[in-house]
Amino acid sequence: MKAVSTQAVPHLSPEQYLEIERNAEFRSEYINGQMFAMSGGSIDHARIVRNALLRLDEQVRGKPCEALASDLRLYSERHRVFTYPDILVTCGPDRFHDDRSDTITDATLIIEVLSPSTTNYDRGEKFVFYQSLPSFREYLLLAQKSIRAEHHSLQPDGSWLARTFTAPEDGIELKSIDCSLQLGSLYDRVVF
């Protein structure tokens, strides 16, 4: 669902992008002044997103955090980039780009389900964009073709610690939101 097309439109300002995007039939991300159409996702991609969202939602109820799915646009002000993360978790008051409530400017946890066409982008440049968010503390990348998670967590010294999980019984501690995910449960109904 996160594939970024190589066909770009001419250079646009963030304001021009938002004007087009808010009226568009299909979603596009905005990077370096260009819009990139997003392709559709697979059923397994959708299942992994659903499973993760359900498990997070169960655990954040009654807390100041909220888990949200991919329909919400995220803006990195430092990089002037608009993306659509598969899942983001916000804690505290929501901060929006403008007076519309369709573009958020901060997240504590972001989850991306890796697709063959976006794996390098999600691990690289996109992670750099997310690191510029004020409250961003954890990044979870979930493989689509195998049971595998890459968990990145911000350390007190400003470095990022990366851990990989591959056993279905592995528990992934999301300390920034005081939650835990069992890896195998994220792959319920996924066919490999």
Map the helices and strands.
Elements: E1 4-8, H1 14-21, E2 28-31, E3 34-38, H2 43-60, E4 65-69, E5 73-76, E6 81-83, E7 87-91, E8 103-104, E9 109-113, H3 119-123, H4 125-131, E10 138-142, E11 149-154, E12 160-165, E13 171-174, E14 179-182
Parallel strand pairs: 5-8, 9-10
Antiparallel strand pairs: 1-3, 2-3, 4-7, 5-6, 7-9, 10-11, 11-12, 13-14
Explain how this protein is built:
With 192 residues, this protein is an alpha+beta fold. It contains four helices and 14 strands. The N terminus is likely disordered.
End-to-end Cα distance, whole Å, is: 18 Å
Radius of gyration: 16 Å
Point out poorly predicted stretches. 1-6
Strand order in the largest sheet: 4-7-9-10-11-12
Task: Provide a concise account of the structure shown.
By secondary structure, the chain is α+β, with helices and mostly antiparallel strands. The protein has helices at residues 14-21, 43-60, 119-123, 125-131; strands at 4-8, 28-31, 34-38, 65-69, 73-76, 81-83, 87-91, 103-104, 109-113, 138-142, 149-154, 160-165, 171-174, 179-182.
List keywords for this structure.
192 residues, alpha+beta, tt1808, chain A, six-stranded mixed beta sheet, three-stranded antiparallel beta sheet, 33% strand, disordered N terminus
